[in-house]
Design a protein that fits this description.
single chain; 117 residues; mainly alpha
């Protein structure tokens, strides 16, 4: 049986949060700035998070109002469309400051029944 799309999207978001956190564990800003491979991994994970957020139904988004879903989607769009002009400081700040609260919100949502389940 297939999982509903909202749950799968949240699982995709959570999996990529975990990957990004693993990619930056113990890494300083200076090391991140100097490591193009790590930058690529983190940016790709953020793009997947934004794409999965875009796939969430309005009903699912409404059950997690603390998350600025449109901001995550817009961030994904900026990363993928202006790949040649990514501001690494914004990427770093997003990962360090915004990702932990997104993880908590997604974890909470995954513990509950989502609309349509």
């Amino acid at each position: 049986m297939r999982r509903p799309r909202d749950r799968q999207s949240l699982l995709d978001i959570r999996a990529n949060i975990t990957l990004i956190q693993e990619f930056i564990a113990g890494v300083t800003w200076e090391a991140f700035r100097a490591d193009i491979g790590r930058q690529y991994q983190v940016i790709h994970g953020l793009e997947i998070i934004g794409e999965a957020a875009r796939r969430l139904s309005p009903a699912a988004c409404a059950t997690i109002p603390a998350v600025p879903w449109q901001d995550w989607i817009a961030f994904r769009n900026r990363l993928s469309r202006t790949y040649d002009d990514v501001n690494l400081e914004i990427v770093w700040d997003t990962v360090m400051l915004e990702l932990p609260s997104l993880a908590l919100a997604v974890d909470e949502a995954l513990r509950r029944k989502l609309p349509g389940e």
